[in-house]
C-alpha cells in the first residue's frame, strides 16, 4: 500500500523508450498491491501499470506469473499481461528492481459485492480454470497445505497473545483439516489462490479484470473457489455470513464446472483450509508488525471466525 | 505520501453522481501530496483527482485555495481547479472529510530540471503573479517571517540533536534575516510559497501545470521566486549549487517581472528567509517523527547548507 521505490520522471522516460508505447504523459505512484511499487503511467498511446517488484515477490518466480498472464490473455481473458519491449522482453530491471510494464485494465474493486457480482466473479474464475487446461508451467503453493504446520510452529504460543486459546484451536484445526485434505482424485491446475474482492475489477455486474496473480500456483482447482468463498461471503470481521453471496459464488462456478458429489462433500474442509491459510499468514504478520506501524494489520480472528463457520467443531476457545 | 482515508468504489460511485462527469470507470489511490488522500479517478467522460483533506489543510481555508485556483484557471493558466457539482458546489464532504473533485492535468514532476525547464517554470510562476493582480482574497502566510521565531523556540535546544551548533546558527540567522526583511516597498500578492519541482508538471520543456497550492498566501511577490530558487538550484543534499538552473530561474521570472535594484539587492535575504522557513519546518518534523517511522524525514541540514550559500556569514557551526 505504498510506493517503496521512487522512479524519477527522467528514468521512467528512458525506460519507456525501450517500448513501442509512445511518450510519457503522466505518472502517479499508486497505493496498490501489498509490497510492490506501482505507478499508473500514461503515454501518448495509452495507459499502463508499472510494477517494481520488492521483496515479497521472488524474481525467479516472475516467469511463471508472467507466463500464466500471457497464457490467459492469449485466450482472451481479462487479465493484465506484461507488455513486451521492442526486443520481446517482458521482465526488465529499473532502479535495481525487477520491473514490468503491465496492461492497464478498467474497473473498480468492490467493497461490498452483490450476489450478482459475486456470481459473475466466480464465473470469471471458472473461465480462468478452463483456460489453463493446456498451461504447462508449474509452481508449488507457497502457502499450501504442507506449509501450515511449519508456519504455525514459527508462531508458537505467541498465538495466544492474539486471543486466548488460539494456539490450541489452530493446532486442532490444522491436524483435522490436513488429515482430511483431498487426495489425488481432485482436479489440480493453475489457480489464483488469492481471489479476494480486491483482486477483481468490475464495472457494474461485469468483470473487467482478474488481477494480482502473485500467489498463483498449482493446487486443487476447487480450493480456489474455497478461498474465494471464504473471502467474499463474510463481513470484514468474519462474524456475519452472507448466504446469498456464498450461494451465488457456488452457482456461478458450478455453471462452468459442476461440483462433483465428493467435491461438495469436501468443500467445507477446503474452505476450512483456506481459513487456516489466511488466519496463519495474518497471525504471523500480526505478531511481527508493531502495533504502531503505519501498515494496517489485518485481524487474524476474522479468519478464525470464518473457520468456525465452516467447521464449528474445530474452534472451541478463541472466538 | 499515502492514502489515509479509504473510499469504497460504491461510495465513490454515489459521490460522482452529484456531478455531471459520467460514470466511474477506474479509481486508484495515489501516493501524492503530503497529508491528503488522493485518488486518480477515471469516468466515462474524463479523468479527475479526488482529494480528501486530512488534518494538514484547515477546512476553513479551502475557499481561499479553491478561489485562487478558480481565478487562475479562469485566466487560462494551467492549474487544477475543483470541479463544480450540479448545484455549483466545489467543496464537498466524503467519508467525513472535506473533499474536492479536481481537474486532472497531464505532465510529470521532474527530479532534475534542466535550465530550460527551470526557466519555463519561473515564467509560469510570473504568469501566475500577473494573473492575481485582481484577485481579492487574502490569506496570511502560515509559514511567514513572523512564524519563524515561535517555531524556532518550540524546537529549542533539541535542534542541536540534528547537528551540533544548529540552535545558535538558526538563532543568529533568524535575527539577522528578520531584521533585514523587506518592508512595504516590495510588491505583495497571492504567491504559491511552495513551488518545488514536485509541484510543477511538465512535458519536455513545457509547463503543463502548477499544483499543490495549499501553502498559497499573500506575501512578498519576489519571495515566491526566492523559495523556488532555493528549491530548484541545489542537489538534494543542498551541498551543490547549480548556477545554470539558478540563473535560468531569475532570467525566466525577470522576462515578465524585471527585478528592481532593491529587489536584486535584497534577493539573498529573501532566499535566506526561504531556507530558514524550510530548515525550521523540516527540523520540527525531524524532531517529532520517530526515526523508524515509515514516513521519510527530510533532512533539515539540506536547507541549512542552502542558507550558507545565500548568507555565508550566518552559518558558523552546524554545517
Layout of helices and strands:
The structure is a homodimer of 319-residue chains.
Chain A: H1 9-16, E1 24-30, E2 37-43, E3 46-52, H2 62-74, E4 92-94, E5 97-103, H3 115-131, H4 148-155, H5 159-162, H6 166-179, E6 188-191, E7 200-203, E8 206-210, E9 217-220, H7 221-232, H8 243-256, H9 261-288, H10 301-310
Antiparallel strand pairs in A: 1-2, 2-3, 3-5, 4-5, 6-9, 7-8
Helix pairs in contact in A: 3-7, 3-8, 4-9, 6-9, 7-8, 7-9, 9-10
Quick synopsis:
The first copy, chain A, has 319 residues and is an alpha+beta fold.
Describe what you observe in this structure.
- Chains A, B: Residues 27-254 form the Aminoglycoside phosphotransferase domain.
- Chains A, B: Belongs to the pseudomonas-type ThrB family.
- Chains A, B: This is Homoserine kinase.
- Chains A, B: Pfam families: APH.
- Chains A, B: It catalyses: L-homoserine + ATP = O-phospho-L-homoserine + ADP + H(+).
- The first copy, chain A, is α+β, with helices and mostly antiparallel strands and 319 residues long.
- The first copy, chain A, has 2 domains: 9-103, Phosphorylase Kinase, domain 1, CATH 3.30.200.20; 115-314, Aminoglycoside 3'-phosphotransferase, Chain: A, domain 2, CATH 3.90.1200.10.
- Helix content of chain A is 40%, strand content 15%.
- Chain A is built from 10 helices and 9 strands.
- Chain A has helices at residues 9-16, 62-74, 115-131, 148-155, 159-162, 166-179, 221-232, 243-256, 261-288, 301-310, and strands at residues 24-30, 37-43, 46-52, 92-94, 97-103, 188-191, 200-203, 206-210, 217-220.
- In chain A, the strands form 3 sheets. In chain A, strands 1-2-3-5-4 form a 5-stranded antiparallel beta sheet, covered by helices on one side. Chain A has a two-stranded antiparallel ribbon with strand order 6-9.
- In chain A, a hairpin with a 2-residue loop joins β2 and β3 (46-52).
- In chain A, α4 (148-155) packs parallel to α9 (261-288), α7 (221-232) packs antiparallel against α8 and α9 (261-288) runs antiparallel to α10.
- The longest helix of chain A is centred in the last third of the chain and has 28 residues, at 261-288.
- The first copy, chain A, is globular.
- The two termini of chain A are 29 Å apart.
- The model of chain A has no long low-confidence stretch (mean pLDDT 94).
Amino acid at each position: 500500500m505504498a510506493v517503496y521505490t521512487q522512479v524519477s520522471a527522467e528514468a521512467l522516460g528512458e525506460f519507456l523508450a525501450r517500448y513501442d508505447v509512445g511518450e510519457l504523459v503522466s505518472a502517479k505512484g499508486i497505493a496498490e498491491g501489498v509490497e510492490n511499487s506501482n505507478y499508473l503511467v500514461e503515454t501518448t498511446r495509452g495507459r499502463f501499470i508499472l510494477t517494481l517488484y520488492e521483496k515479497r515477490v521472488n524474481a525467479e518466480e516472475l516467469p511463471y506469473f508472467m507466463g500464466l498472464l500471457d497464457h490467459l490473455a492469449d485466450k482472451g481473458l481479462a487479465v493484465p499481461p506484461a507488455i513486451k519491449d521492442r526486443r520481446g522482453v517482458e521482465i526488465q530491471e529499473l532502479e535495481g528492481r525487477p520491473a514490468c510494464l503491465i496492461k492497464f485494465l478498467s474497473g473498480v474493486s468492490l467493497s461490498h459485492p452483490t450476489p450478482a457480482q459475486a456470481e459473475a466473479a466466480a464465473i470469471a474464475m471458472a473461465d480462468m480454470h478452463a483456460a489453463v487446461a493446456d498451461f504447462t508451467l508449474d509452481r508449488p503453493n507457497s502457502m499450501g497445505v504442507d506449509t501450515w504446520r511449519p508456519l504455525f510452529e514459527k508462531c508458537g504460543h505467541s498465538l495466544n497473545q492474539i486471543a486466548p486459546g488460539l494456539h490450541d484451536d489452530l493446532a486442532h484445526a490444522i491436524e483435522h483439516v490436513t488429515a482430511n485434505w483431498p487426495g489425488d482424485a481432485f482436479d489440480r491446475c493453475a489457480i489464483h489462490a488469492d481471489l479476494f474482492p480486491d483482486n477483481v475489477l468490475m464495472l457494474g455486474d461485469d468483470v473487467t479484470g482478474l488481477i494480482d496473480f502473485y500467489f498463483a500456483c498449482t493446487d486443487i482447482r476447487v480450493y480456489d473457489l474455497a478461498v474465494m468463498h471464504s473471502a467474499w461471503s463474510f463481513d470484514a470481521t468474519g462474524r456475519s455470513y452472507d448466504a446469498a453471496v456464498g450461494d451465488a459464488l457456488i452457482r456461478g462456478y458450478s455453471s462452468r464446472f459442476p461440483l462433483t458429489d465428493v467435491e461438495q462433500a469436501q468443500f467445507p474442509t477446503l474452505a476450512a483450509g483456506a481459513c487456516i491459510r489466511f488466519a496463519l499468514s495474518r497471525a504471523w504478520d500480526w505478531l511481527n508488525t508493531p502495533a504502531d506501524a503505519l501498515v494496517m494489520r489485518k485481524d487474524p480472528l476474522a479468519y478464525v471466525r470464518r473457520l468456525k463457520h465452516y467447521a464449528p467443531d474445530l474452534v472451541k476457545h478463541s472466538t
